[in-house]
Each structure stands twice: as C-alpha cells, then as structure tokens.
Amino acid sequence: MAAVHKQKFSFEVIRVCPHTGARAGILRTPHAVIETPVFMPVGTQASVKTMSQQELEAYDARIILGNTYHLYLRPGHDLIREAGGLHRFMGWNGSILTDSGGYQVFSLNDLRKITPEGVVFRSHIDGSRHLFTPESVIEIEHAIGADLIMAFDECIPYPVSHEYAARSCLMTGEWAERCLGEHEKTTDGAQVLFGICQGSVFPDLRVLSTESLVAMDFWGYAIGGLAVGEPKRQMFEMIEITTPILPESKPRYLMGVGYPDDMVEAVSRGVDMFDCVLPTRNARNGSVFTRNGKVILNKAYQAKEFTPIDPECGCPACRNYSRAYIRHLFQTGEILAPRLATLHSIYFYLETMREMRSAIIENRFPHWRDEFLRRYRNEEPNP
Amino acid sequence: MAAVHKQKFSFEVIRVCPHTGARAGILRTPHAVIETPVFMPVGTQASVKTMSQQELEAYDARIILGNTYHLYLRPGHDLIREAGGLHRFMGWNGSILTDSGGYQVFSLNDLRKITPEGVVFRSHIDGSRHLFTPESVIEIEHAIGADLIMAFDECIPYPVSHEYAARSCLMTGEWAERCLGEHEKTTDGAQVLFGICQGSVFPDLRVLSTESLVAMDFWGYAIGGLAVGEPKRQMFEMIEITTPILPESKPRYLMGVGYPDDMVEAVSRGVDMFDCVLPTRNARNGSVFTRNGKVILNKAYQAKEFTPIDPECGCPACRNYSRAYIRHLFQTGEILAPRLATLHSIYFYLETMREMRSAIIENRFPHWRDEFLRRYRNEEPNP
C-alpha cells in the first residue's frame, strides 16, 4: 500500500538557469502535477480567504496550504479524518501542504511552554491547554491528509542570541528525527515529509541545521525561520548558505515568503516553493500587488479612476471592474471588495510564477528577473 | 431620442392561470428581457452582497436592484453619472431597478422631517443634512440610470392611524404626480417610471391610492408599504384589493417581499415582480432557504453533516460543499461562509421563480403551488 502511493510522488528538476541558481521543476503528488517555481495560496482554516475552490481551480492553482495548528483546533483533525481527509472536507481536488503548527505555536508567546518532549500551549480561541509533540503533530498531519507535510520545528523569533538559536536548532534536529521515525512507522504512503532548516541569521547554525537534516534524508526541505523581521540582506544570505547544501534532486520550500520581488530573488538563489499570506491579507486591507508595484485601492484618490487595477492584467477583477468601483466597495464595506482585491493579487502571484518558470525553461531568466524587478520596484507614486 | 429608447420597453402577459391570479409575462428593457414572475436580488450599494456580477450572470439573473438613498450618499449620483451610469460603474450588463429612497428615508425616524415639499433627513453615515423632493429623487434616479425607476413615496410604518395613513396617501399621490411631471420633462427615454400604491392596511385607502395612481398612467405599478410588520393575512388582503384595480397590461411589483411561500401566494394573487434582502441577509447570518424550508448552517448539529445543504439543489454551494464544511467556515468567520450561503439562497429564489413560471405557462400552477407550499412549510426540524 505504502509503496503504491509513494510512486505517485516525484520531483524532477527539468532546467537549471546557467547564470543563476533558478530551477524549473515538476513535483508530482497523488492529487496534482505541480510546476515549480510555485506559489501556494494559504488556506489557513481550510479556505483561501475570500476565494472559492472553484475560483482557485479556474486559476489552475495546483497546491494550497492548510495550517495544522488552526485545523487541529477547528474543526479538529478527528472530524477531518471522519470527513475523509482535508481534500474531501473542503472539496479541493488539487494538492495540499500542511505546515506543522510550529510557527503558530511559537507565535503564542505567553501562551506556550517548550520542553524537550514538545510544546504545551493554550488555544488562542478558548484558552484550553494542548500538547504538541513531534509524534502528535505527525499523527494530526496524517489525519488531515495533505500530500506534503512538514516536520515539527521551533520557528526561532528574531532577534535571538546565538546560544538560544544553537540550542533550538539542536532541538529542532531531534524533533525532525522523531517526526521522521513516527512518519515512517505510521504512514500509509499517501504523504511525504519535509524537514525544516532553521538557524536564525547565524551562518554556522544554518549550515549545521541543514547538514543534519540532509543526513536524515527527508523527501523535501523547507527553509524556515526567515522573513520574521531580519533585514532582507540577511534573509538572502541565509538562503545562499542553505540551498547549496540541499540535495539538487529534492524540492526546496522557503516558508512564509513573501513579497513578489523577494520570491524572484529567492528563485534566483535556487528556491522552488513559496507560501505567504501577503496577497490575501493585504488585499483584505485594500492593498494589491501588480507588475508595477503595490496599489492601494481604498483611498479617496481612486474615487474617479474608472480604469482597472492593471489594464494589462487578465484577472476577473481587472477584466470586469474599475478601481473607482472597488474603492466604493471598500468604502461601503462590501464583501465583494476583499474578494476582487484577493482575486487580483492571487492571480498576479500565480502568473508571476508561471512567467518566471517560462523564463527559466527558455533560458532567459536573468533578463526576465531584471526587467521584473525594475518595473515592480518603481512603485506607483501615491498622490 | 426618447421615442427610440421607449420602444425598447415593453411588458406582455403571455399566460394567465385560469384558476388563480397568477400571470407569466415578458418585460423588455434596453438591457435585458425579463421573464416574470421574477425575483430581483438586492444590490443596495451597487453590489448584491457577497456575490460578483459574474456569479449573477451565471445564474441568468436578468435584473437586480439598487437603492437610491444609499447610492446618493455613496458614491454619489454625480460620480455614477460621470462613470457612465450604474450599469457601467458596477460592470453589470443586465437590467437594474432603483427604488426611490422613500423606504430608507422614512426608516430614519428621528433623523428626518416630512413637509409637503419633500423630506429633510440626516445621513445615517455622517449626520449630514439632505433634502429629497419628488423632483430631486427623479433627477438622482436619472443620473443613476437604472432601467426601471420608482416614484418617491412615503412608506407608511405599521401600525398607524387611518387619519395618518389617509393624509400620507394624499401626499404620496401628489408626489407621484410631481415625479411623473419631472420624469416626462427630463427623461431621455432610457428609463420608465413606476408609481407606488400605499394605504397601509386600510382597504378604502388602498383602493383610493391605487385608483389615483392608475389615473396618472404610470408605466408600471408597485405595491408598497407591506411586509412592514402587519399580519400576513392583512398583507394578502391588501394585495387582493389592489391587483384587480391595476391595469392587466402593466407589470406589478410587490416591494420588499419576501419569504419564498409569501412570493408564491402573491403570484397567485397577480403579482409579477419581487425584491427582498432576506435571501442575502439571512445567508450572512447562517440561515438559508430550501424547498424543504429554512436550514440553519452555523449550528453545532451541522458539524458532521457531510452532505450538501440540499442534495437536490444544483447551486455551486450544494454541488461542491457539505454542511459540515460550511458550518466550519461560519464558525471560523471565513468570508466563503456567507458567500456559499448566499449563492445557495439566491439560486433557490431564482429557480423557484423559474419553476413557478413554467407551471403557469403549462397550466399547472395551482398544483405546483400546493406542492411547493406543502413541502416548504413542513420545515426541517432543528434537533
């Protein structure tokens, strides 16, 4: 059984940019064939906020994220198992990746206590007490049933001492081993496990963490603990330290990143997969991303802009509605406002990834990257 | 010019039920051919709450409502005129009907003062002072540019004295005449005007109001001031008094109604058009309408109901999602929750109208009505 399923998973790098670290690949899971580099829209609570699964399908999104911490609390992994897994529960036929809950649990600050066994935390919803261990998290992720699942790690905050980061990396390493052990013991083969490299902004720890995880032979690797407040220069430095250590044949996932230009820079350094709440969260606050940079929609100066967010964009918001109308929807609190803004930004993120992939395959990535960054960073002036 | 446009408007009764007052008709406007009986989804602020115009088109909705009071305040009728009218502003290619703002203005209670000239009121948004007169309302409705526009009336609250209602009816009659005069003086022919019959629950006043409006020869007629708190028995009695006085050749619109069974009863008494916020508003609160009655989605007893809202329903919510999932979305405050609930209820309303129309055309309306009411009123028991 396990073997049959496992054959459905594969990752293949089909082109490497000769001038940068950029790669184009194909990631096969039982639910979808995913072309990398890929952006995975975040569906924290089994919904990519404001979007329907049909809208994601229409965008040809192949993989979305679910958050283990949130799904464990509501509706609960037992209910999801009873529903036949998260795919069936939420009516999504593509692939799913679940994080391990580490990021959320460690964000709780006062509500949690770390021990070598695991983390005791209190729910942000009702204050109830819970324990996450590497073993319990794998059990929860198996119940949820995503295609790609993540090991339980400590997402180290920034800034932090070298001493703290070193101890944390060791613990994350031990937890990774326990996750792997639990996964191999209990998997039915319908899922593959990623390890998460940590190390804060310390090069020696990044190397140590990555090498130890590579030695454990995970199916894929995530780079965690970045985009948590450190300077961008340091974020890219850590990526540059990490990707050369990672096996070329395995997928690389930069967690929680990010801005469109950051993703382009990260692809340039050998990253294949991304997730981030920015396109959805900022859209709900009236701010969207375009190839010309950020556009703020819910401002008075948009009141009579009877043109689309981006006249060159092919998304349903740009094909059918004006900035003036969307601004009116934001002003009056209509739900169609965050819907249209999200439809635009998710489309832009997915399209940017597809364009980038074509550029890599057609051996013109460096030029594409430079043009994209030049245009994107020349942000639209706000009057 | 006016004449050219006006030819685009027509109403034709194509079948009358031989046993009831039910009629099937065709209402032509420059933007759509509307088959009656029809339910018009309410887009108060230029958006049918939670839905996109593309979703309404996919439902083959031919006409929606806009609210003059709300659109006058935000974004303002001058801005809508500058955008090229409401159709262009909101990207809606079907027909639109605007109410006159009477209902909203008279709902403001402490914020408004009625004089024979018109109504002085304060905005519910910022307290600013405004005057609506029959003439100014027509000017605003012309600027908004809906296909069907309504005369400015006083929507009498319930209960009210016969004396108050009588005075109000006289005033509404005078205002109707002024609206008609202003409309005929300034129309470019792209719109037709409906008069609104009032009279509270007093048969003599309903007769008086209706007869006086019929004498003025409006293009269509609305029955207003019902579903404002009076017993249903009285509501139907007022409809029964009104429809026989109205010209057979003109469309009849029962404003603000209503529940699915009430619409069926009203069609049975000769009404052609309906609007109501119930399917959208209740959906946002987790309550939807089905052929088996009301279903509450955001309750614990739905947590493991892995079946659709209505397995027989063809709407996108029922084809793709379970009650358990939608309940989870409500519990976690996801925007997809009100979206799916609204998608279901609006589909049900539109489908019910289409079924009813077929039954009228195929001479089986009384049987269809009895079956519908029997099934609908046997409401699903809440455990």
Task: Give a short overview.
The structure is a homodimer of 383-residue chains. Chain A is an alpha/beta fold and 383 residues long. Chain A contains 16 helices and 16 strands.
Widest beta sheet: strand line-up of chain A = 4-14-13-12-11-10-6-5
List the uncertain runs of chain A: none
Fraction of residues of chain A in helices? 40-55%
The major sheet of chain A is characterized as: 8 strands, parallel
Distance between the termini of chain A: 61 Å
What does this molecule look like?
Two copies of one chain form a homodimer. By secondary structure, chain A is of the alpha/beta class. In chain A, 43% of the residues lie in helices and 18% in strands. The first copy, chain A, contains 16 helices and 16 strands. The first copy, chain A, has an eight-stranded parallel sheet with strand order 4-14-13-12-11-10-6-5. Chain A has a three-stranded antiparallel sheet with strand order 1-2-3. In chain A, strand 1 and strand 2 form a beta hairpin. Chain A is globular, with a radius of gyration of 20 Å. Chains A and B meet through helix 14 and helix 15 of A and helix 14 and helix 15 of B.
Key attributes of the depicted protein:
alpha/beta, globular, 8-stranded parallel sheet, 383 residues, homodimer
SSE inventory with pairings:
The structure is a homodimer of 383-residue chains.
Chain A: H1 2-6, E1 10-16, E2 23-28, E3 33-36, E4 38-41, H2 53-58, E5 63-66, H3 68-73, H4 77-82, H5 86-90, E6 95-98, H6 102-107, E7 112-114, E8 119-122, E9 129-132, H7 134-144, E10 148-150, H8 162-186, E11 192-197, H9 203-216, E12 220-223, H10 232-242, E13 252-254, H11 260-268, E14 273-276, H12 278-284, E15 287-290, E16 293-296, H13 316-320, H14 323-331, H15 336-361, H16 365-377
Parallel strand pairs in A: 4-14, 5-6, 6-10, 10-11, 11-12, 12-13, 13-14
Antiparallel strand pairs in A: 1-2, 2-3, 7-8, 8-9, 15-16
Helix pairs in contact in A: 7-8, 8-9, 9-10, 11-16, 12-15, 14-15, 15-16
